[in-house]
């Protein structure tokens, strides 16, 4: 950091898309500012709401457009991939018939299926504006998210600025270590993805990209293809990073009774599993835990669940300050899709995780969590997966109840 002060004092951030590809930027920006440098975020209009006050000195949220189409594209991707029960199944569905299945879904939703290149950059005007900013003399460093902000790498290289991409997804190293079956991709081949080039796939294979994943979540996937790896980007211990819980939520958490928290990502795909999936998940958690807090806009229309809500045993919040919630002493269990961010947060707060993965690297993270927490070694252990929630007739409720009650084995 001291060398940066000698010539310039601003670090440019390029981060877009959903929270899983954005959240790393906030604690890093705070660390940059604590070192006496300026942190300047370039993003789209949608993501500006995710930048807390005081995290960045400047937030440029106009050059890359509103971001609504990008958000819709990400939602369509998650909805499509969430229909399948493994990384291989989802990739095969994407690649079959030249991707026409996904294109058809996008058409129904009014989303441009070409998404990645166009919507992450906001068009050529956004790229040009960022490139011009990177050439200004106060810029010391450029940091960019590997999937959606890769345009920033070219801008930094052209401006001769030091730079680094960060990849929050560890999917490719996981595939190389765990996926023994061939996985189809848009390169037109169906093969085992275990070469060094496969591991470096995200971010165009550039070694200027580093992975973000904690050592305890690597499992057998130690080979990073020559890339650097950083641990979780989280606030300093004792700081939630999400702001206060708010007096009402804090008062509810402080009441008697252990709490199970459910948070399945910024765009939950529960409705794609089955019409009754959300209700069965909530009922199973209530059967296995005195109280339940769910990240959801509202409780489903169901008499049993409405009664639990009225009695104070069930609470829904459209958004949860997750790190702060998981740090509360009343919380004993976390039902998670096993996205990297929320998994890191739960582990940092020492909470038991019940994995319920939906797509991509979540399947692999779930497996590593189940090994690390000792579930996989328990006699008769059955992982909680989407297939249980498809069954109906109470089967999903029973599976969730068992998973929530199980907990890690004792010492």
From TrEMBL:
InterPro entries given in the database record: UDP_glucos_trans
- Entries under Pfam families matching the protein: UDPGT
The record's similarity note reads:
Belongs to the UDP-glycosyltransferase family.
- Keyword Transferase included in the entry's annotation: yes
| A GO MF term | UDP-glucosyltransferase activity
Superkingdom classification of source: Eukaryota
Q: What is this protein called?
A: UDP-glycosyltransferases domain-containing protein
| Keyword hit for Transferase | yes
Q: Which UniProt keywords apply?
A: Transferase
Gene3D superfamilies xref list: Glycogen Phosphorylase B (3.40.50.2000)
């Amino acid at each position: 950091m001291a060398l940066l002060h000698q010539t310039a004092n601003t670090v440019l951030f390029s981060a877009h898309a959903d929270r899983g590809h954005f959240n790393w930027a906030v604690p890093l920006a705070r660390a940059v500012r604590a070192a006496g440098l300026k942190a300047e975020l370039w993003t789209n209009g949608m993501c500006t709401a995710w930048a807390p006050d005081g995290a960045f000195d400047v937030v440029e949220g106009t050059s890359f457009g509103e971001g609504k189409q990008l958000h819709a594209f990400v939602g369509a991707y998650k909805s499509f991939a969430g229909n399948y029960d493994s990384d291989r199944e989802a990739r095969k569905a994407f690649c079959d018939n030249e991707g026409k299945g996904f294109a058809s879904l996008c058409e129904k939703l009014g989303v441009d299926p070409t998404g990645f290149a166009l919507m992450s950059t906001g068009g050529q005007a956004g790229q040009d504006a960022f490139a011009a900013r990177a050439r200004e003399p106060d810029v010391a460093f450029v940091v960019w998210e590997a999937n959606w902000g890769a345009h920033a790498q070219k801008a930094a290289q052209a401006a001769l600025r030091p730079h680094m991409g960060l990849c929050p997804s560890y999917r490719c190293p996981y595939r190389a270590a765990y996926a023994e079956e061939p996985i189809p991709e848009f390169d037109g081949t169906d093969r085992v993805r275990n070469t060094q080039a496969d591991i470096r796939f995200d971010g165009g294979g550039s070694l200027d990209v580093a992975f973000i994943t904690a050592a305890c979540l690597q499992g057998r996937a130690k080979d990073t293809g020559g890339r650097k790896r950083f641990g979780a980007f989280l606030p300093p211990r004792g700081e939630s990073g999400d702001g206060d819980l708010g007096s009402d939520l804090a008062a509810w958490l402080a009441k008697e009774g252990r709490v199970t928290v459910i948070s399945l990502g910024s765009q939950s795909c529960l409705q794609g599993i089955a019409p009754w999936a959300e209700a069965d998940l909530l009922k199973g958690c209530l059967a296995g835990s005195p109280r339940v807090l769910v990240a959801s806009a509202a409780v489903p229309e169901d008499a049993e669940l409405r009664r639990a809500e009225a009695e104070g045993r069930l609470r829904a919040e459209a958004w949860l300050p997750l790190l702060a919630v998981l740090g509360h002493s009343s919380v004993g269990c976390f039902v998670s899709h096993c996205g990297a961010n929320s998994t890191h947060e739960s582990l940092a707060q020492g909470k038991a995780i019940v994995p319920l993965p939906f797509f991509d690297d979540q399947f692999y993270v779930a497996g590593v969590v189940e090994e690390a927490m000792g579930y996989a070694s328990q006699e008769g252990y059955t992982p909680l997966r989407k297939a249980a929630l498809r069954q109906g007739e109470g089967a999903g409720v029973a599976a969730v109840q068992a998973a929530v009650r199980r907990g890690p084995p004792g010492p």
